[in-house]
Design goal:
alpha/beta, Rossmann fold, Dehydroquinate synthase-like, alpha domain, 2 domains, three-stranded mixed beta sheet, 9 strands
């Protein structure tokens, strides 16, 4: 049994409004927060869709002025955040509305942090470096994907384009003031993005469930997420906006998956630690969800013997028939179930599928241990350099 009573943990979930059509309540929420002028932070693709119109309509109906910053980019580059800060300051906005996926959420969080503290965000890299501060600008986050769970997260990541280094921070003081989770905002997600982000949501739950610091709370969230994703991702992938029940359940799963991960203190996140170098070194654009999906079955196979009963339970939660199987056989079914779900969701299966060369594997290992060694150390089965190299080779 991994769950321990000896590991203190925190549970912090921001106030959220959840349900079909709830984006229409945005104006009321901004009024409750005391905002008078909002900035909608999004990317250029979303700015061309009716999602921006839905958000802006909610503000107009509440007589709230707004401007749009639609220059967000993948990985939340530092210079883009700096540009966003300048635009928000110039327009005297007092509410940030983040509309998009994980990178947009990070841009919104870090823009508000920069303005609220008056300090460069690079000063806050690390854990709990953000002190309590006056909130000059508040933030509302509206996710348009069901995967990262960034809307509920106290983490944020940004990219320094000059060095190519991604830096992260974690603090409850960068969490959103309000969240709107409206599955209608995800109805038109393309199948591939639906699959990639759905597997990412599953990965948070799987790693939380098998983490060294798993808790009763993280178990509760993780078990629900594993079932929700297994039962609803295929339909969301296949039917798009025609199956709003599946979309609704995936939206909930994304948020709960992040809550599960946060409740474990981030322990056991071997897959995520290995996924960043894969994405960084791939010569073609690779989403976080794809990199996680490629590695997850192979990392699970490595971790399996660390807690056979937990992995057997994962198989059961994903609908595998484990009756009359040995605990090892049942646990192995979890690996097959995750791989099959990834195939159904149309996500690439091998590192070679995203143009990673086998001779690049030593670079991936070096990057993993130079920047994210703690992921290997905190795994439910601690991984050495040779272990990580073998997992990459198995995934190639």
């Amino acid at each position: 049994m991994i769950t321990s009573i000896n590991n203190p943990f925190e549970v912090c979930i921001p106030r959220s409004t959840i349900g079909l059509g709830t984006v229409s309540k945005l104006g009321d929420i901004v009024n409750i927060l005391g905002g008078s002028k909002a900035v909608i932070i999004t990317d250029c693709m979303l700015a061309k869709t009716n999602l921006l119109e839905k958000v802006s309509t909610g503000l107009k109906e509440a007589d709230i002025e707004y401007v749009v910053f639609d220059l967000c980019e993948p990985n939340a580059p530092y210079d883009t955040i700096q540009r966003c800060v300048d635009e928000v300051t110039k327009n005297n906005c007092d509410v940030v509305v983040g509309l998009g996926g994980g990178s947009v959420m990070d841009t919104a969080k870090l823009t508000s942090l920069w303005i609220n503290t008056g300090k460069d965000i690079r000063e806050f890299v690390g854990v709990n470096k953000v002190e309590p501060h006056q909130y000059k600008i508040l933030k509302v986050l509206i996710p348009t994907t069901a995967g990262s769970g960034s809307e509920w997260s106290q983490n944020a990541v940004f990219l320094d384009r000059k060095t190519g280094i991604k830096s992260s921070m974690s603090s409850s003081h960068i969490m959103a003031d309000r969240i709107i989770i409206d599955p209608e905002m995800m109805a038109d997600l393309p199948p591939l993005i639906t699959g990639e982000t759905g597997v990412d949501a599953l990965s948070h739950a799987l790693e939380a469930y098998t983490a060294i610091k798993a808790t009763l709370i993280s178990d509760m969230f993780a078990e629900k997420v594993i079932k929700l994703v297994a039962e609803n991702l295929p339909a969301a992938y296949a039917s798009g906006g025609q199956n709003m029940i599946a979309r609704y359940n995936m939206a909930i799963a994304a948020a709960l998956g992040l809550a599960a991960a946060m409740s474990t203190g981030g322990g056991g996140v071997l897959v995520h630690g290995m996924a960043y170098p894969l994405r960084d070194f791939a010569p073609v654009p690779v989403s976080h969800g794809t990199s996680v999906s490629i590695l997850m079955p192979h990392a699970m196979q490595f971790q399996l013997i660390s807690n056979l009963h937990r992995f057997a339970k994962i198989a059961e939660l994903m609908g595998e028939n484990v009756e009359n199987l040995s605990v090892y056989e049942a646990a192995s079914r979890s690996v097959a179930a995750v791989k099959n779900l990834s195939i159904i969701a149309g996500v690439p299966q091998r590192m070679r599928d995203v143009k990673i060369l086998k001779e690049d594997i030593p670079k991936l290992v070096d990057s993993m241990f130079e920047l994210r060694a703690f992921h290997a150390e905190a795994s439910c089965r601690p991984a050495t350099r040779d272990d990580v190299r073998q997992i990459y080779e198995d995934a190639w």
